[in-house]
């Protein structure tokens, strides 16, 4: 599973961050294009919000079904943070 979801940016509201979820062989990888994510640091704000199913961080509400799919997959695989 490889899904991209776009997150709101406070500093640049018209330029969302891309959060990429990759679930393969029971492993979850999440990459975020925000400044901490680019530098390999933990992006708590975006990654954690999406893992917890927080729709408030979605830039595009039409991606809500994708976020639901990710959360369901994580729950089914017991990959909670």
Features:
alpha+beta; 81 residues; three-stranded antiparallel sheet; globular
Describe the overall structure.
This protein is α+β, with helices and mostly antiparallel strands and 81 residues long. The protein has one domain. Helix content is 31%, strand content 25%. It has three helices and three strands. Strands 1-2-3 form a three-stranded antiparallel sheet. The model has no long low-confidence stretch (mean pLDDT 85).
SSE topology sketch:
Elements (H helix, E strand, L loop, with lengths): L1 E6 L9 E8 L2 E6 L2 H4 L5 H8 L12 H13 L5
Antiparallel strand pairs: 1-2, 2-3
Strand order of the largest sheet: 1-2-3
Radius of gyration: 12 Å
Indicate the overall shape: globular
* Total strand segments: 3
β-strand percent reads 15-25%
**Biggest sheet architecture:** 3 strands, antiparallel
The end-to-end distance, rounded to whole angstroms, is 18 Å
**Structural class by sheet pairing and helices:** alpha+beta
Order of helices and strands: EEEHHH
* Residues in helices, as a percent range: 25-40%
Q: Could you list the spans in which at least 5 consecutive residues all have pLDDT below 50?
A: none
Tally of discrete structural domains: 1
Number of H/I helices? 3
Mean pLDDT: 85
């Amino acid at each position: 599973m490889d899904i991209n979801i776009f997150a709101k940016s406070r500093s640049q509201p018209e330029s969302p961050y891309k959060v990429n979820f990759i679930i393969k062989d029971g492993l979850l990888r999440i990459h975020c294009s925000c400044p901490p994510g680019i530098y390999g640091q933990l992006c708590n704000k975006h990654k954690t919000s999406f893992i917890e199913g927080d729709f408030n961080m979605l830039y595009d509400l039409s991606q809500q079904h994708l976020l639901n799919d990710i959360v369901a997959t994580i729950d089914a695989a017991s990959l909670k943070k």
